[in-house]
Amino acid sequence: xxxxxxxxxxxxxxxxxxxxxxxxxxxxxxxxxxxxxxxxxxxxxxxxxxxxxxxxxxxxxxxxxxxxxxxxxxxxxxxxxxxxxxxxxxxxxxxxxxxxxxxxxxxxxxxxxxxxxxxxxxxxxxxxxxxxxxxxxxxxxxxxxxxxxxxxxxxxxxxxxxxxxxxxxxxxxxxxxxxxxxxxxxxxxxxxxxxxxxxxxxxxxxxxxxxxxxxxxxxxxxxxxxxxxxxxxxxxxxxxxxxxxxxxxxxxxxxxxxxxxxxxxxxxxxxxxxxxxxxxxxxxxxxxxxxxxxxxxxxxxxxxxxxxxxxxxxxxxxxxxxxxxxxxxxxxxxxxxxxxxxxxxxxxxxxxxxxxxxxxxxxxxxxxxxxxxxxxxxxxxxxxxxxxxxxxxxxxxxxxxxxxxxxxxxxxxxxxxxxxxxxxxxxxxxxxxxxxxxxxxxxxxxxxxxxxxxxxxxxxxxxxxxxxxxxxxxxxxxxxxxxxxxxxxxxxxxxxxxxxxxxxxxxxxxxxxxxxxxxxx
Length: 521
Hints:
- By secondary structure, the protein is of the alpha/beta class.
- The protein is about 30% helix and about 25% strand.
- The strands form six sheets. It has a nine-stranded mixed sheet, sandwiched between helices. Strands 7-6-5-3-4-8 form a six-stranded parallel sheet, sandwiched between helices.
- The protein is globular, with a radius of gyration of 23 Å.
- The mean pLDDT is about 90.
- It comes from Sphingomonas immobilis.
């Protein structure tokens, strides 16, 4: 789909002083005029460095105005933008830059040690990029000043504007991240990818369009939210760093119409004292969307009681091969479901690739005519395909479909615990633990067990003011056993100050397995 009106430059002509991008907790505001001029300068800069359509750049940035400036500059120059997590270690970030053959890195001293180390590696010729830019002043050793570099370029469009796109990397919760190459052919800068088309259709009815996303822009969903908000001429409100009260304040201050969250954000907002929640008016919200991780049913019910029946949910992946969607009205009829397929055809299959009966758990496949590829990893690409149907693609989730076609997810296949020959999916126990008032966050993993192969271990972050210890452990185990089978419940619980969650809400379970691999269940 190509539409010349669906690009920020059009809104810079029609509404130059409208805020395009707001960082609510710092007060930074970028208008459409400023975004247009700065992104033109960025595109000119990339061309001056010899970058051509199809080349790649890396963005290692915290949420701030330089993120959309760099992104839209690259988009106008036909470049593929690879956003990097600010939590990456220098070696991990360097791996991604090398893996995608990035020509330029835009980062900032405020990211921390990884940015400093990458700039130093560039100075010594070890990073493999042509240039590193620092959005902070003074620039780090080995980096050029981003603002000075932009100021030296004209604020007019380059002669050969071509649509670029994004190249996101998987979150790496179970191993090294992989680049996800989505189907996209460079063309006019108003050209939309399929994910953009699906997302923008849900935003075009809001007037004025003001969106909120509290997660980092280096993740696919927040990035797409920003992109489609700018394509539709709206105001994208973000936070430098998510805080439960800061999110409510931003919604109130900017009269947000559409907001996107992950379930852990719901949990943190619900944990606020009633008097804090009452300070902020959230009645401007007309639609709330959540995704990225499972949401306990009770948590979602409590959010609907608070925000109203405006909470929508979708299930998809950065691979963009299909999507399920469920409205609030549907979810109240089908609590726990992630909806029916709105693009792609669902298939639920056993380990042999045979489709299972309605209601039976299996590996979730989307039948898609837009297959992606994992960059430089044909083996992983092939593994995602069905053994007999190459257009059926699995994202690694286990679930079942009911008689009405609604999908219910059970867990990630990689997280399955095999104890005494029984397959155990930890999501049910995790949801049960998180439902307890003494728990702030919880995870359930499998650990080595000499008798059963794997044992079930619970890892709990107690709620503020709750004392960790044997008494709490006993209460939580009894709480689990009151609702789910004993075999799926933790036999032992360990307590931590904080669980390793990504900003998307996903648990970094490989870290937990590494840390607790020698614990007796």
